[in-house]
Amino acid sequence: MFIDSGDPLEQINLMIPALPFPGETRTDLNPWLLSTDDPLSLQHRDAFVGNGLLGQRISPWGDGSAYEGRSQSWRYGFWGRDKRDNEALMELPTWAVLDFHHPGPMGRRCERVLNHRQSLDLRTGTVETRYRVEGSHWAGEIRRRAWISRSEPNLSVLELEIVPEKGWYIELIERFDASWMSQTQAVHTAQGECLELHLEAGPDRRPLHLASRLETHGQVPERTTERLREGCVERFTWLKVEPGKPIKATRFVVIADDGLPEMAFDLTALRQAHEKSWAALWESRIEVPHAPVQQLVNACVYHLYSQTRAGVPLAIGPCGISGDGYCGRVFWDADLWVFPPLALLQPELAKGMVEYRYETLEGAKESAREDGYEGACFSWESAATGKEWVPFPKIHQQRHVNSDVAWAQWFYVCLTGDTHYLREKAFPVILESARYWASRAVHNAEADRYELLGIYCPDEYAAIRDNNACTNYGAAWTLRKAAELAERFGVEAPVDRFREIADKMYIPWDEEHGVIAEFEGWTDERVIKQADTTLLIYPWEMPMETELKARIVDYYRAHYPKNKIMMGSAIDGIIDCELGRPEHAWESFIDLLPHFHPPYFTASESPTNDCMNFLTGIGGLLQLVLMGFGGIRVRETGIEIPPPSVSTKPLPVTLHTKVSQDFSNAPT
Fold first, then answer.
1. Measured between alpha carbons, how far is 495 from 498 in angstroms, rounded to an integer?
2. Quick check: helix, strand or coil at residue 225?
3. Cα–Cα distance between 588 and 590 in angstroms, integer?
4. Distance CA 423, CA 655 (A)
5. Angle at 467 between CA 411 and CA 380, to 5 degrees
6. Residue 2 burial (CB < 10 Å; 0-12/13-18/19+)?
7. Residue 68 annotated in active site
8. So what's the pLDDT on residue 185?
9. Of 155, 159, 199, residue with least CA distance to 50
């Protein structure tokens, strides 16, 4: 099924500005293929392949052999410790290596590389690299293909084809290298038909098993040698060159944390299963009638699909498994930014993100007890158990995360109508979040209101303040929802107290500017880092007049710094669409474009930093497209889309989704 957001605007010129990324207004652009002929550009950001469990950056040369002393690869659940001894996602040993060498007097230093081209096929999660090498003693055409199997969660494939024009031998190089991993405790290597590396890493001695098998597709090796050194095992396979005859090699790599599974290494069958799995994912997609925007949207959806997997209770950090930003830990980014668009597209992929919060509920309860409060205190930086790992104690007070977690739980239930999940998992999370707020709220007897004091604002430039409007309203929403569900399920809870606190929760007001104040004591000269008060309009949907919404978004938009991070523009654009101001929404969309870097639309938090790949901002852009341009909202009765006459949008959006539209089991 699909959901169509309406007809295009009459003023079609709004759809075709001068977009600052490749192929600005071309209609012949392939929206599924990202490519570059300039891999050594300073603007170049590596391609990424992943299957929702394992991820790997691919260098301009087509594998991971170019990363010295690193692997640029991560796997969910492979937790270790960072420099502050806090829990962090560990980088994997170097594994994505299928390199080649051709013996000669001068080696590669005398070579030149011509006709280099690399592409990322978004439909199949495949990076293909082609180039020509010319030297005094060797010349040939090189073709590489790298992909991580979507159908087999532990399997990756590196393919290499060489068409030599002259030379004697080609030496193929395979490698597993953990020698650079300082936290590695014990390493055991073994050779046989497969190359293997077994290690225990980190202070918890976490096991990891790697094995690979090389296929040379009918060409018999002249000889094979292995080299062992501490933490590293390499294999060198020599093949004789016949000019004009292709040399083909495939390296199958298996990475598992609980022993190596039995697998059949049939390249054709594995590739077919991989493509079939990706095709099933892409049945859920977003369509827009503008080729460059379509290409960007496809890339953003790809980045989410390649980093999430059904059936595993995992939430992704701001950079997921595509980088080491934020140590792989889970923030509110997962619940409020990445989860909503992913859930609209693929609820089964997104389910693991809300289940993660239920699975770490006991850790959140422990954190609340340690702080002297009741209920659950969900961590600002969460890892394996839900325990707080934020390295700076003050930032631990970003307690709005509790309400963000509760909101995502309710969003999932409304979207899917899954009453079993509501009763068994979502409700406990929402209830314990409400207990936390009830124990933390302070009654101001003189004003007869409830306040939340010493809270770190979503706008991190504001730091710790009293009565942050967004935090206070989110707490009130959580308290009301918990009371409603407790009554529905007949669960004993202080529902009257929940409702009293919610009804009397203080929301500060800026009388001079006629807007809700970001926090008590707000002053006009302040600069804000990201969306904060505007979050009251979306996603919290606080009841207010249309004129007040317009004043709030316009007022706070003027307080961003020059190189602002992505989240503010995304929220502003959604609100502009709701207000029927398509030109402002389109400007917000264009504001996001400098955050995307060529050639693979890798996002950074701000245009000038190198925090890659920033999935939080990608989630924000997709919400601008779906909830802004598409006007989509998720209510208790399911998906709601206003007609075009009500929600004027700068670009028509069609959402193809697997979300069931049978809401007979909806939560209300």
1. 5
2. strand
3. 5
4. 29
5. 50
6. exposed
7. no
8. 66
9. 155
- How do residues 338-371 score in pLDDT, each as one tens digit? 999 999 999 999 999 999 999 999 999 999 999 9
Q: Which amino acid is at 498?
A: F
460 catalytic? Reply is: yes
| Whether residue 608 has pLDDT greater than 90 | no
350-380 exposure pattern, b = at least 16 Cβ within 10 A, e = fewer: bbbbbbbbbbbbebbbbbbeeeebbbbbbbb
Reply yes or no: is the peptide bond before residue 86 cis, omega within 30 of 0. no
Cis peptide, bond prior to residue 539, ω within 30 of zero: yes
Predicted local distance difference test score (pLDDT) of residue 7: 42
Residues 6+ apart with CB under 8 A from 546: 579
What domains lie within the chain, and their CATH numbers?
Answer: 2-7+35-280 (2.70.98.40), 391-531 (1.50.10.10)
CA 370 to chain centre: 31
56-95 in b/e form (b: 16+ CB < 10 A) is: bbbbbbbbbbbbeebbbbbbbebbbbbeeebbbbbbbbbb
Q: pLDDT tens digit string along 42-68?
A: 778 899 999 999 999 999 999 999 998
- With a CB cutoff of 8 Å and minimum separation 6, the contacts of 350 are 308, 339, 342, 343, 412
Q: What is the pLDDT of residue 26?
A: 58
CA distances to 566, 578, 579, 581 from 646, rounded to whole Å, are 27, 8, 9, 11
- Catalytically annotated residue among 165, 171, 460, 500: 460
Q: CB-based burial of residue 382 (10 Å sphere; 0-12 exposed, 13-18 middle, 19+ buried)?
A: buried
Q: Mean pLDDT throughout 97-126?
A: 83
Strand ranges of the sheet holding 2-4, from the earlier edge strand across to the other edge: 2-4, 654-656, 285-287
Percent share of the chain, pLDDT over 70: 92
| Sheet strands (E) in 606-653 | 633-635, 638-640
Supply the pTM of this predicted model.
0.94
